Every structure is written in C-alpha cells, then in structure tokens.
Amino acid sequence: MEKEKKYIILCPDGMADFPLTELNNKSPLDFAATPNMDYIASGGIAGLVQTIPDDCLPGSDIGSLSILGYDPVKYYTGRSPLEAASMGIELLGNDVAFRLNLVNILDENGKRIMHDYSGGHITTEEAKSILETFQKELGSSDFQFYPGISYRHLMVAKNNIDIKGLQTVAPHDIPDLQIDEYLPHGNSSSGILLEIMKKAEDILKNHDVNKARIASGKLPANSIWLWGQGHRPDMPTMKEEHGIEGAVISAVDLVKGIGKYAGLNSIDVPGATGYLDTNYKGKVEYGLNSLNSGNFVYIHVEAPDEASHEGSIEKKLQAIQDFDKYIVGGVLEGAKKYKDFIIMILPDHYNPVKLKKHSSGPVPFCAFAPSMKDTHFKYHTSNFSEKNSQNTGLFFDSGSKLFKSFLNSFNEFL
Fold first, then answer.
1. How many angstroms separate the most distant Cα atoms in the chain?
2. What tens digit of pLDDT does each residue of 59-75 get?
3. At CB < 8 A and 24+ separation, what contacts does 211-215 make?
4. Domains in the chain, start-ordered, CATH in brackets?
5. pLDDT digits over 315-354, tens only?
6. Residue 61 in contact with residue 82, Cβ under 8 Å?
7. Alpha carbons 200 and 196: distance in angstroms, whole number
8. Could you give the CA distance from residue 183 to residue 196 in angstroms, rounded to a whole number?
9. What is the pTM of this model?
10. pLDDT for residue 13
11. Which 8-state DSSP code applies to residue 122?
C-alpha cells in the first residue's frame, strides 16, 4: 500500500431507499440535490455492493463491519459488545453486553405499542440522570448500567448469563407495533431480562426527568428495551490485515466500537449528535486533520438513518443534502492538500422511509481519486442514485471484496 496515499470512506447511514410517489417516483437520493456525490460518481466509479450477507440482519453493525473489509459472518458476535468498546467498557470472559434503549411505549386499550424507539430523542444529559438511577437501584454484581448518548445505553450482565437461543429485536424495527411478541424470549434468561425491564418502568414512572419532559410537552422515556446481546469479538486490526492506520469519526457508539476493535483511533467531535443538527463541519475538520498522522479515515453520519426511522421524507432529503454539501463537499475541498487520495461513499444498508426500518439489498457506492480524472471508466454515472449505480453493471457481492478493490484504487477496472 502506498504510504503517501490517503484513503477516505464516507458513510451516510441508511441513505439507500426506494422510489417514492411523493418524489416523482424517485428515491430520496435520486431526488435530492447532490452535486458533490454526482461529481464523484461521474468522474470516478460507481456500482452496487452487498454489505449485508445472507442470513444477517440489516444494521449498522453488520454494514460497517462489511464496509471496513471484515466478514460479518466470521467476526460478528453481537451489536452491544461493539458499543461497549466505544464506551471504554472492557468485557471479560463470559460477560454479555446488551443495548439498552430508552423508549416510549404507548398503551392503547391494553395493547402496548412501540411508539418511539428513541424516547422522544431524549438528551444525553437527561438520559445520564436516568442511567445513574438505574445503576443505584438495579445495579449489582450481576448487572451494571452504563450511560451512552441520547437514547442509546448499555447493560452488562456478569456471571455467565446464558444467551444461547435468546432472541431479541431492535426497537426501531417494530415501530407502531404491539410489543408482546417481540419481547426477549427463547431461553431461561429472557425472564430475567423481562423482570429488569419491568423494574425500570416502575422507576421511570416517577423519575424527575420524565416529570420535567411531560411538563414541557415532551414525550417521556417511560420504558427500556434490551436487545443486541453478545460477547467480546475476536478480530484482527486493520493494520494487521491491510497496513492501515487511521481514525473513525461517528456520534454512534456502535460505529466507534467497531473502529476500536479495528485498531482505529476513535475521535470525538464536539457537537456531533447523530442527528440533523450534528456538527458536519467539525467532522470534516477532525477527519482531515487525522490524516496528518494516519492514512485512513472513516466518517460516519447517522442523520439519514434517523430521518428514515421517523418516516420523514422531508428530513431524509435534508439529511442527504446536508451530507453532500458539508461532508462530501468539505472533504473534496480539504483533500486537495494531499498528494494522492481516494474517496469512497456508500451507505451501510437500506432504510426505506416508508418502512421506517432497515432492509437488505445491494447499496450504491461511488469512488473518486485524482488519478481517475482523465480515465474513461466504464462504470460511472452522471447522477449518483440506487438505480443509476445498478445500471453501471458493476457489482461486489461482499463489502470485503469492495474494500480490497478500494485499497487498490479500483485499478483492475481501468
């Protein structure tokens, strides 16, 4: 690998989508104004890649592992251990990490509905107060509670809790559905988890944070949801595999944790929220600066995925256009100072705004390097979209194959 070359991957989480009648039968990506991604797709290379292997559930855990060149079937042990790494939580032996969402459950005539997987997008400060209460009242030598960001937190089970056969479901995959059939089930440990969830609900009923939220007209976080369980993974670093040294930039603990296990430096950017109000310019600044000491950076943006989970076409268009303007545009401009570089852009998975949950399927990618400028690639398109990327005819059946080609600047297609 060339030491002077800089390798940059930009991931707009959940950007891939289906055509919508509201957008003249175009997908949000196709409809949105994306001059910078169009520039990359027209001057470089574009196609499709299967980031989610068969028999794997579509999610940012599987998708980001795949994008970074890892085979999820081989290395994935669960979502929460990756988040634990990001939070500096060391899992030992048979420790099991669980994602703990603060959620809002709606009671409709005795039927309990998953109303909001994010607890009304509760703030990190509010959530920290709640998790501190959980640790005080529910924490023990068997269970520990750790605050994360916004609605995303962790519970670690010690002392050999059995997760074989245990089935859990992501709350963002069951929007507006009755929760009964999606509660933890499958083995004897499920009863323990359900008991913890019930005790947490009792605490939340009278918590000062929820009292204040209700008084100000905000949705209360009136329940928790435990899911994404797993043990510590055993995976090689990117330096060991590819000679890469670099950084990951994300507001999402899951992605930061993948970066840490991959041996990348996880950089915290002030004002990075994982939502539409994130510090886009800061992400670009910190990302480009990281290349002064490394040769790789992975910049992950959560906003498109959050917009889809909310079912908001307007917010998804805004998220895509902001990503293009501030992230892609900023990186294209800032990367000019480097002698040689390559930029690749791709979402980790589909998140159709009409479904409000992740789905599988090959996602579009595009890549550009200055060396491609005067090369007439067969695989390019003037407008970056799912359909146009498919029409180039270029397809990778795994993220690991795409990553290897990316490191080779796609020279095999010259």
1. 65
2. 999 999 999 999 999 99
3. 213/120, 213/122, 213/126
4. 5-75+236-413 (3.40.720.10), 96-230 (no CATH)
5. 999 999 999 999 999 999 999 999 899 999 999 999 999 9
6. yes
7. 6
8. 12
9. 0.84
10. 98
11. -
